[in-house]
Amino acid sequence: MFEHAASALSDLMEPMRLLALFSGMFVGLVFGMLPGLGGIAAVSILLPFIYLFDAYAGLAMLLGAVSVVYTSDTITSVLIGAPGSPASAPTAIEGHALAKQGQAARALGTGFMASMVGGVVGAFVLFLAIPIAGPVVLLLSTPELFMFALVGLFFASSMVGRNLAKGLAAAFLGIFLGVVGPATAAADFRFTFEQPWLLDGISLTIIALGLFGVAEVISMLSSGGGIAGNRMVVERWGEGFQDFWKNRFLVLRSSVIGVFGGFVPAVGASASTWVAYGHAIRSTKDKSRFGKGEIRGVAAAEGANNATVISDLVPTLLFSVPGGPAAAIFLGALYSFGYYPGPRMVQQNPDLMYLIVWSVALASVVGAVICFAITPMVARLTRIPFAIIAAPLMLIMIVGAQQATGTMGDLYLLFGLGLLGWMMKHAEWPRAPALVGFVLSGPMEQYFWLSNQLHGWSWLVRPGVLIIASIILIPLLVAGWRKLRAHRAAQAEARRDAAAGFIPDLPQQSGPEPGHVRIISAALAVLVTGAFAYGLWEMQEFRGTSRLMPGLAIYPGIALSLFLVVQAFRALPGARLEGFSEHRFLLMLVLYPAAVWAFGYTIPTVGLIGWMLVFCAGMRLLGAATYGGVVMALVFTLYHLMRTDVPTGRILDLI
């Protein structure tokens, strides 16, 4: 083993292979920072260039890109609250809250260091686990894989927000969005409304950018100023390193969670990150900071998600089952270079296996050092008027969304989901469970269907399933018992006080939520209930196997959403829209795609940039024209690199 590892390190140290690795790493760093692009875009752009090198150098180039994407997408997650991937959602929640408090450099520094450790731990564990990884993975059958996905979904629903019903409803809404398109086990196209751009389902990129990116842009544009409300002390960015060192054991534990979670095909990164985040909450005495800017949440999430980069390759290399889209492209590159993944690959190509380990480890360290070095410069962006940043940011998100089908449907979905994300944010529905539910809907449907086909319903009493289910049930039972004890203790104390003639001071009641928040909460609950009701009606025409996963989302989803409708309408009396100032920005979500549909991309986009820079940011015309020209050039360059056509207008086509 050690001789093969030494040989692989020697092979990687050749100048051309190092050049290829660092070139891929540079592309991964840049695309990781651009919301909506990330790892899949980075490896797609690099794919034509890997054949200029030998097999080791070409594969190292791809590995360099995917190894640093989770590191650099921390920047997007922290600064604008838009996770570059579902596994970065906890970072967006905690890191963005810290950025708004003027502590972006602290969150970024901790995230970069945790990502580096996660990558190195992942490489080290895989180094030791290569001979035994195959048998370990084979121990898991489809029922256990389904339960692992369910555990990840539960953690995402229950760890964010104060209302478990809202978290679970958001998760089921995410699953509902995930089943749009072709069914896994039958020739059905579900909930497509006869639109060709929905036949392949909704893109993960559009879901992430809509729910988080567009929604955050609208909120920050309306609030004015920069991302952070407080002045950044850039010279103290070393505070991030201090936080990392203070939580180093949490990062190590989270990295191990990420490694073993990544072994599960198509599930690992999303599920294991939320398990690690849940571990951070349970291992913290004061839990009140979570969701409001807790650095331990950033450390745990970044340690876990970066560790999955290499463990996601385990099912790819041993079973030809890609752990994700980027791993699928890597699998294609392996075939093109004449390598055929399978259980025998460890014996047949040991040097290649260890080259993968060294490439990921080296890229993780160097990438984190680069990101950590530029943290002070990046943190200054939090004091720039956000409207200046919002112009290129919004257009980059549109380019990222257009990768899905290259049609106007991508824009409709992006801005429609942006409106949904904005409503969820104001109604205090956690958005992360919806994103995780969407990601897990595909593998969950596959595992659920296979479990029923192979085992009937007897799989529910399999020992492995019961053990994994206890991860959900035991915390629920413990929490219920604690609440019951607290309620009984409060009742007993009240009886003693009454017997003694003592009248306790009543606690101060907090005032009702602002009127527009209560109205949005009621509107969202009705909207989601209507969506589930339509899904229930439409589902009756599907084949039996095509109804399994929609039913798993719709039946509990409609019950929860009806409960939330009642809850929202009880709080609605007296609600008014006073203090609501975001209407003009919401109008943009409707007018811009309509204008692009009518007049094409260029004219409405120039108008959008001008409005943001002149009216929102207060720039002078000459400065706005110069800056806007640079932004437009950047956007058209991205369209060219992504080989995507610019939308054309229906009206201009008729002229």
Overall strand count: 2
How many structural domains in the coordinates?
1
Could you list the spans in which at least 5 consecutive residues all have pLDDT below 50? Answer: 506-511
As an assembly, this protein is single chain
Strand content: under 5%
Helix content: over 70%
| Mean pLDDT over all positions | 79
Strand order in the largest sheet: 1-2
Can you tell me the overall shape?
globular
Order of helices and strands: HHHHHHHHEEHHHHHHHHHHHHHHHHHHHH
Distance linking N and C termini: 69 Å
Q: Count of DSSP helices?
A: 28
Going by helix content, strand content and strand pairing, the class is mainly alpha
Radius of gyration: 25 Å
Main beta sheet: 2 strands, antiparallel
Structure description:
This protein is mainly alpha-helical and 655 residues long. It has one domain (2-461). The protein contains 28 helices and two strands. It has helices at 2-12, 15-33, 38-46, 55-80, 89-100, 104-138, 142-158, 164-178, 204-223, 239-246, 248-262, 268-282, 295-311, 313-319, 325-336, 345-348, 350-373, 375-379, 386-401, 408-426, 432-455, 463-499, 515-539, 548-570, 583-599, 602-616, 621-641, 650-654; strands at 181-182, 189-190. The radius of gyration is 25 Å and the shape is globular. The model is unreliable at 506-511 (pLDDT under 50).
Helix-strand blueprint:
Elements: H1 2-12, H2 15-33, H3 38-46, H4 55-80, H5 89-100, H6 104-138, H7 142-158, H8 164-178, E1 181-182, E2 189-190, H9 204-223, H10 239-246, H11 248-262, H12 268-282, H13 295-311, H14 313-319, H15 325-336, H16 345-348, H17 350-373, H18 375-379, H19 386-401, H20 408-426, H21 432-455, H22 463-499, H23 515-539, H24 548-570, H25 583-599, H26 602-616, H27 621-641, H28 650-654
Antiparallel strand pairs: 1-2
Helix pairs in contact: 1-17, 2-3, 2-4, 2-17, 3-4, 3-15, 4-5, 4-6, 4-13, 4-15, 4-17, 5-6, 5-13, 6-10, 6-11, 6-13, 6-14, 6-17, 7-8, 7-12, 7-21, 7-22, 8-21, 8-24, 9-19, 9-20, 11-12, 11-13, 12-13, 19-26, 19-27, 20-23, 20-25, 23-24, 25-26, 26-27
